[in-house]
Design a protein that fits this description.
It is a single chain. By secondary structure, the chain is mainly alpha-helical. It folds into two domains: 91 residues, no CATH class; 35 residues, no CATH class. Helix content is 40%, strand content 10%. It is built from four helices and four strands; from the N terminus they run H-H-H-H-E-E-E-E. Strands 1-4 form a two-stranded antiparallel sheet. It has a two-stranded antiparallel ribbon with strand order 2-3.
Length: 142
């Protein structure tokens, strides 16, 4: 296997951080990839989730892993405003932080932490979910 170069690693980080900032299953996987490369003590990749990625994103995920190992460059150093970008991804996907992995997704709010209702004028009203206290997670079945 040919070693990954700096440009290939940087491109993989760009692709995956862009995807990680979307509310999709691919975004969830991309977040796990880049955040585990950023801080493996706090984030871990569920390898089976890689099967949710199409070819382009799967190869980018592998290149993030390879680049982190082979080049030993922290991923946030490869994107403009990297710390801010990674903190936004961290906040968006905190449900998958290692401290939350064991918790169940709240079925009342579908893990959003908010109940969305519409009034007669189709105006959206968001209120914190009472079941999970706005976290989107529950520590035990009730």
């Amino acid at each position: 296997m040919k070693p990954i170069d700096h440009k290939g690693y940087e491109e993989a980080i760009r692709i995956m951080t862009n995807l990680a900032q979307t509310d999709t299953s691919g975004g969830r996987v991309a977040a796990q990839v880049v955040l585990s490369a950023y801080n493996g003590d706090e984030w871990q990749l569920d390898v089976t989730e890689l099967s949710l990625l199409d070819g382009k994103y799967y190869l980018a995920a592998l290149n993030v892993i390879r680049g982190r190992k082979e080049l030993m460059i922290e991923p946030h150093n490869l994107v403009p405003d990297g710390r801010e970008v990674f903190h936004r991804i961290w906040d968006r996907w905190f449900r998958y932080h290692i401290s939350n992995r064991w918790k169940q997704t709240c079925f009342t709010c579908s893990g959003r932490g908010k109940i969305v209702e519409y009034d007669d004028h189709d105006q959206e009203k968001r209120t914190p979910c009472h079941r999970c206290d706005g976290t989107g997670l529950i520590a035990q079945a009730s």
